[in-house]
Specification:
The protein has 6 helices and 2 strands. The chain is mainly alpha-helical. Strands 1-2 form a two-stranded antiparallel ribbon. The longest helix has 41 residues, at 114-154. It is elongated.
Length: 155
Amino acid sequence: VPPDQRPLNEFNSIRNSWINSWPLLEKNIFYRKLLYSWLIIIPISLIISYGSNNLRNNMFDLAFISLTASLVFPILLLFRQWLSWIYIYKRLNSERIEYEESGWYDGQVWEKPIDWRAKDLLIAQHQVKPVLNHLEMIIIIFISIILTSLIFIIL
């Protein structure tokens, strides 16, 4: 197996990447980064919403809809992080690993040695699983905020 396709090396790679390492930060720093990502997109959302004649005449609806719509960007960031971490989690948990030697056309399957498997399982359960649970909780909270706002907007 090429070294960059070994699950433990992939875990280290994702842990050191810029956006996928956010969930490993302290919770207040992580939430601050999500808040900044939301605040950065708000002006764009306000400009787009201002294009509507109905919203232009009602500032409360304009602000409310823009703030709600701008939550989509942090959700996309969280979803991207979740996809990366779930991929690593599955690779660490599996007994067999699919890998490519030189391209997509020559994939192979490799069975992990017992000691590697035990190490990978420990990392998956004690380092990756808590990150996944945290990301899933935040995604659910954000989606429920959007759904509640949509119900408020419709009514």
